[in-house]
Design brief:
Elements (H helix, E strand, L loop, with lengths): L22 H20 L1 H12 L3 H7 L2 E4 L5 E4 L2 H15 L4 E3 L2 E3 L15 H11 L1
Helix pairs in contact: 1-2, 1-4, 2-3, 4-5
């Protein structure tokens, strides 16, 4: 069961420009990374329980999948946008760092070698987006 699809990257914070040629690459990348990231996040055994729990509509696993706000007995508030939002951030980071583009105000652009230097993946919005995904 996919938790992230191409629509997660159509707009918003994790927007990736894609067209008919690159949509297949992005979709394949999502399919390849999703289970790997969730296995690393939960561990193999808990990920299997999570998959089965979501498939069987078990409330404790649906709560992990969906966004929620809870207040603990200590009055601490916990807020999550859900596993899908976190996955979208991680996939955005992995996909974008392998692209020959840089983020700009008007979207992602390809730098010209004679007028600029290609920024490393540590520069710009990509690291900010990765850290925001961790925060989810």
């Amino acid at each position: 069961m996919p938790y992230v699809d191409i629509s997660n990257f159509a707009s918003g914070f994790n927007k990736i420009a894609y067209n008919e040629q690159t949509i297949v690459d992005l979709t394949t990348f999502i399919e390849d990374k999703e289970e790997l990231i969730l296995t690393e996040l939960f561990g193999a055994e808990l990920f299997e329980l999570f998959k089965d729990g979501v498939a069987n509509d078990e409330p404790e696993y649906l709560k992990l999948r969906d966004s929620f706000i809870d207040q603990l007995d200590s009055c601490r508030v916990i807020q999550s946008k859900g596993v899908g939002e976190m996955l979208a951030g991680f996939i955005y980071f992995d996909y974008s760092r392998f692209q020959a583009t840089m983020p700009s105000v008007s979207g992602r652009v390809t730098p010209k070698g004679e007028n600029s230097n290609v920024a490393s993946f540590n520069v710009g919005l990509i690291t900010e987006k990765y850290l925001k995904a961790l925060d989810t």
